[in-house]
Amino acid sequence: MDRLIFLGTGDAMGVPRVYCDCEVCTEARTTGVNRRFRSSVAVEGDNGSFFIDCGPDFVTMMESRGQRFIERILVTHAHFDHIGGLPEWADACRWMNKKGQLYAPQEVLDVILKQYPWLDRNLNLHAVDHGVILAGWDITGWKVFHGKNGYSYAYRLEKNGYVWVYCSDAIALPPEQKLPLYELDLLVLGTSFYHEEAEFSTRSVYDVTEALELISEVGPKQSIFTHMSHDIDLRRKYNLPDRVEFAETGLERWVGGKISLM
Q1: pLDDT value of position 259
Q2: What are the two backbone dihedrals, phi and then psi, of residue 149, each rounded to the nearest 5 degrees?
Q3: Residue 98 carries which DSSP code?
Q4: pLDDT at residue 258 is higher than 90
Q5: 71 within some domain
Q6: CA distance 97 to 175
Q7: pLDDT 10s digits, 76-91
Q8: Inside any domain, residue 167
Q9: Could you count the other beta carbons within 10 Å of the beta carbon of residue 147?
């Protein structure tokens, strides 16, 4: 089996917010249970490794785990909290005389190159519109509704009969976008707030109450919530259902082996 490692579990601003003295941000500055880098995960196994997303906390995450290089990164969409670390990755590739391999749908690659037109000097760019295999995982992506922020991509990964989805930035998915969420061993889903009261037209990510409804509908065997704002306090008891949990920074789970519900 492979390891799924949560390098970052925060929303676009991370936790703590620099301007905020709420209880969650204050705790994040001290004991740090709620300290959250921008959302990213690593998948590591005998067949290789890769990251999903490369936000502005990329260097801090790499330093925290003593890692000097990553060869492959798969990107969900071209928002800063998911690509802000790409220039530093490319610079590392330049200094180490290695080529990084960047994977994303073509329209995402196009936006990335408009923002960072020099990246392809040190990174090879691969369009994944028709799928890709990384570290033995058969990966397919599809566009998901990202509310006021437009769209993102979610990825469905399959290996040895194990199927999981990474969907960090989505809300109010229509039926056709939910179809790949059925019959999953694991769903990793973004939930910025527990119950967000803002006007729907201003929102971009599921809250926990909505996510639980989605889980009840699509029925994954396990679920992990990520992309959390400073509204979520991991010291609290939220009474989540069995096999549903919040990700903490550094959380590791085995993926690639069949799950028993016994």
Answers
A1: 54
A2: -90, 10
A3: -
A4: no
A5: yes
A6: 46
A7: 999 999 999 999 999 9
A8: yes
A9: 18
For the chain, give the number of residues.
262
- Which residue type does 198 have? A
Q: Say what the pLDDT of residue 234 is.
A: 98
Q: Evaluate whether 166 touches 192 at the Cβ level (below 8 Å).
A: no
Query: Is 101:134 a contact under the CB 8 Å cutoff?
Result: no
Residue type, 111: V
Per DSSP (E only), the strands in 214-261 are 222-226, 244-246, 252-255
Give residue 169's domain range: 2-254
Structure tokens at 30: 């001290």
Whether 74 maps to a domain, the answer reads: yes
pLDDT tier for residue 257 given thresholds of 50, 70 and 90: confident
- pTM of the shown model: 0.97
Q: What is the pLDDT of residues 182-226, one digit of tens each?
A: 999 999 999 999 999 999 999 999 999 999 999 999 999 999 999
Q: What is the CATH number of the domain that holds 131?
A: 3.60.15.10
> Average of pLDDT values for 161-169?
98
Coil vs helix vs strand at 181 = helix
What is the number of domains present in the chain?
1
The answer as to whether 262 is a domain residue is no
Helix (H) or strand (E) holding 59: helix 58-64
SS3 call for 154: strand
CA dihedral sign, ordered 147, 247, 225, 223: positive
CB of 8 closer than 8 Å to CB of 259: no
